Every structure is written in structure tokens, then in C-alpha cells.
Amino acid sequence: QIKTFIGNYLSKYEEIENIILFGSLASGRFNENSDIDICILFKPSTPKSMETAIFNYFLNLGKELDRSIQCIFFFPEDIKNWDTIFVENILAEGQLLFGNSNYFTTLIKALEFKPYQIITLNLRALNSSAKMKLKRILYGYKTSKKYSEKIYRYQKRGLVKELQGIKLGRGFILTYILLKECKHNLIYQLNPKDF
Fold it and tell me: Where do the Polymerase beta nucleotidyltransferase domain residues begin and end (predicted)?
């Protein structure tokens, strides 16, 4: 309901290109203590005063909902100054509330992924063991074991992270140059018998 309400209300502003939800509400980790994270991408030449009007709206909405609403504003003219941590989070888990999916291209430009490749994975034909193995190779994993009252933790970075890529839902983004390296590493680490 919150997502629909925000999307419908803000879509009346012609200056807004995209409204993207990210953070815990987008990723399914939302609880009673969570805040709401929204990203607003403006169209070129939008006056900066628009930020204040929308910020005030979210301030009032947050009071009504008794919940903190964090809003990130991106103006195309300032693309070189965008915070890459927020951009990576939005790419990884963002949900589009308003606008079209071209926002991916705009955000990727902020990370200077040129040229880049978006890889989408279709794992339906794989059995659960093969899916798990592939996901662990690509995205890494964490394990912990208790031995003699002591907990030992191990974390393995995935191939996507090692090659400075970003996980996106059912796929990932890699620079085109590193795509060959990713393929080579996958072939090296996978056993064809598993698939």
C-alpha cells in the first residue's frame, strides 16, 4: 500500500523521471523498526527547488506513518557527484514505483561501467544442487561452525564481487572487459556432471 501510494502521488510531478524503492522494504527485510528508502531521479534541467517540495511531502508522510522516510535525489547534471554506494544498492535491490526501466542505464553511467554487460540467469532447467553451486560460485557464501565452544566463521567472496560486478535480482552487471574472465572462471570451477 505504501509503495502504491507514493508512486501514485509523486507521479503527478512532471519533473520526475523515475521513483525507485530500495532498502529493506524493497528487499523483503522490512520490520517495525525499518525506515523507507526512496530514490527520485529527476529529468534534465529540473530546478533544485523541486527537491525541497518533495522532501517536505516525505517529512509529513513520515509523521503520518510514524516512520522515517529517507529520500535520495538525483539530478542528471550532478551525475559525477552521485554517491556510488547508494547507486549500487539501488541497482542491486531497487523496485520501480514510477517511470520506465531505463533508470538502470542512468545509474550505471554514474558508476562508469562503460561498456557494460547485464547478464540475466535462467536457472529453471537446473536441479537444486546445481543452482546452489552456481549461486555460491557467483555470489559467494558465509558459513560458521562451532567447535569446542568457539565459533569459526568463513566467508568466500563470489566471482561477481571479485570482478567488481553488481548483483541484480536474477542476474548481474559486469564490465564487458571482465566478462571473458567471468566465463573462464565459471568453466574452470563448474563440473559439467552437475548440470
Answer: 6-101
Q: Which H or E element spans position 70?
A: strand 69-74
What one-letter code names the amino acid at 136?
R
CA distance readout (Å), 8 to 12, 109, 121, 157: 7, 27, 32, 40
Which pTM was predicted? Answer: 0.55
Q: Give the span between the Cα atoms of 144 and 168, in whole angstroms.
A: 26
The pair phi, psi for residue 83, each rounded to 5°, is -75, 115
What grid cell was written down for 52?
Answer: 525541497
**What confidence tens digit (pLDDT) does each residue in 138-182 have?**
888 888 888 888 888 888 888 887 777 777 777 777 766 566 666
CA distance 180 to 62: 47
**CATH class for domain 2-100?**
alpha beta
d(CA 179, CA 171): 13
CATH 3.30.460.10 spans which residues of the chain? 2-100
Q: How far is residue 188's CA from residue 39's CA, in Å, rounded to a whole number?
A: 39
